[in-house]
């Protein structure tokens, strides 16, 4: 029987150089889209998928994310006294009470693979999720990308990568997979290449920031030598893992915004602004008037 996916790892220790200077003193995962930071959208997606432990792998700007998820007594008292009850709700209910947050430090930004490895003492030998919060995924009224993947995991009991079709010219921005089709939207990994040039890409299926991984990935990560840029690449460890056990790629339903990139971030801001219950109509009118 499939073990339940109860833990999610959020690597938030990247340098975020594409967003400097905004990310000089703050992790990029704290950038807001309309009124919520990226990390909160990611945490909400995890909670909707049944995750009970959120494991944040923090870097040098380590304080703002724990502060965001901690109770803010003074702020709550102030809002209560001012009668701003809707705002009080917004800060009180950031995550439900049954969900625990654990913080781990990645002392040097040695790559995504290294960040995931830092979480091993907390993850243990359970399968777990990895969410890169700068990939914001809007599922419309649907199920949430991670919930879709957990459902596939329950059927298949194998590590799963979230993938989407990417423009051929952009394969050099993604880990790109080679798959044997298995079922609708699901394939078995035959290979994975990090950021290939379009001519060398095995397909146009790019990995985005959602993974469910068996704990056997940790052994592979330990054996992974630093690759491009001296970083330990998660992609290399996944490539080693799929040679020992099935690893699947799942084409999730939903729209993904690459919020680690300025253009993707602006696109997300516009789309989330337009569908915001209070702001949407006025924002839409503004954009229309602007032409
Ligand atoms: P990116 O590849 O987007 O790198 O990391 P980055 O450093 O954050 O951003 P740029 O490219 O310099 O602008 C992918 C994910 O892995 C995390 C990041 O926080 C992001 O969620 N990461 C990356 C770590 O946690 N540690 C690392 O050493 C590297």
General description of the model:
- The chain has one domain (7-289): Spore Coat Polysaccharide Biosynthesis Protein SpsA, Chain A, CATH 3.90.550.10.
- It is 33% helix and 25% strand.
- It has helices at residues 38-48, 64-69, 73-81, 85-92, 112-118, 120-123, 145-156, 217-223, 234-241, 262-274, 280-290, and strands at residues 7-12, 32-33, 36-37, 53-58, 100-105, 128-131, 135-138, 159-165, 175-183, 186-194, 205-213, 247-251, 255-258.
- Strand 9 (175-183) and strand 10 form a beta hairpin.
- The radius of gyration is 19 Å and the shape is globular.
- It starts with 6 loop residues before the first strand and ends with a helix.
- The mean pLDDT is 94.
- It binds uridine 5'-triphosphate.
- The site of uridine 5'-triphosphate has 19 residues, from strand 1 and helix 5.
- Residues 11-18, 57, 106, 109-112, 114-115, 132, 134, 260 line the site of uridine 5'-triphosphate (UTP).
Order of helices and strands: EEEHEHHHEHHEEHEEEEHHEEHH
The count of β-strands is 13
Structural class: alpha/beta
Please give the CATH class: Alpha Beta
CATH topology: Spore Coat Polysaccharide Biosynthesis Protein SpsA, Chain A
Count of folded domains: 1
Radius of gyration: 19 Å
Give the CATH superfamily: Spore Coat Polysaccharide Biosynthesis Protein SpsA, Chain A
- This entry's quaternary arrangement is single chain
* Shape by Cα distribution: globular
Strand line-up in the sheet with most strands: 5-4-1-6-11-8-12-10-9
The appropriate CATH architecture is Alpha-Beta Complex
């Amino acid at each position: 029987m499939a073990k339940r996916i109860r833990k999610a790892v959020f690597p938030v220790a990247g340098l975020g150089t594409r967003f400097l200077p905004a990310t000089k003193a703050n992790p990029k995962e704290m950038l807001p889209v309309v009124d919520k930071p990226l990390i909160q959208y990611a945490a909400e997606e995890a909670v909707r998928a049944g995750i009970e432990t959120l494991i944040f792998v923090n870097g040098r700007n380590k304080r703002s994310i724990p502060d965001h998820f901690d109770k803010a007594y003074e702020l709550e008292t102030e809002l209560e006294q001012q009668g701003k009850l809707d705002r009080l709700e917004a800060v009180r209910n950031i995550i439900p009470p049954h969900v625990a947050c654990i913080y781990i430090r990645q002392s040097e930004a040695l790559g995504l693979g290294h960040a995931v490895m830092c979480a091993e003492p907390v993850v243990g030998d359970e399968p777990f999720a990895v969410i890169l919060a700068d990939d914001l995924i809007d599922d419309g009224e649907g199920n949430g990308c991670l919930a879709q993947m957990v459902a596939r995991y329950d059927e298949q009991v194998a590590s799963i990568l979230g993938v989407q079709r990417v423009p051929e010219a952009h394969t050099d921005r993604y880990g790109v997979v080679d798959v044997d089709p298995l079922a609708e939207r699901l394939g078995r990994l035959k290979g994975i290449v990090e950021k290939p040039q379009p001519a060398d890409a095995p397909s146009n299926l790019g990995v985005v920031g959602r993974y469910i991984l068996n704990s056997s990935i940790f052994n592979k990560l330990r054996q992974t030598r630093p690759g491009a840029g001296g970083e330990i690449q998660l992609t290399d460890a996944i490539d080693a893992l799929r040679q020992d056990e099935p690893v699947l790629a799942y084409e999730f339903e939903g729209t993904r915004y690459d919020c680690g990139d300025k253009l993707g971030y602006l696109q997300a801001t516009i789309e989330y602004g337009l569908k915001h219950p209070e702001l949407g109509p006025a924002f839409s009118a503004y954009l229309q008037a602007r032409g």
